[in-house]
Amino acid sequence: MTTAITPHARHEGLADLASRFVSVSQLPWEETDFEGITVKTLLVDKETGLLTALMRMVPGAELPDHEHMLIEQTYVLEGHLVCPEGECKEGDFVWRPMGSRHKAWSPEGGLFLAMFQVPNKFFKADAETDMLDQNWDTAWGATASYKAIRG
Question: Deepest in the core among 27, 29, 98, 147, taking most CB within 10 A?
Answer without folding.
Answer: 27
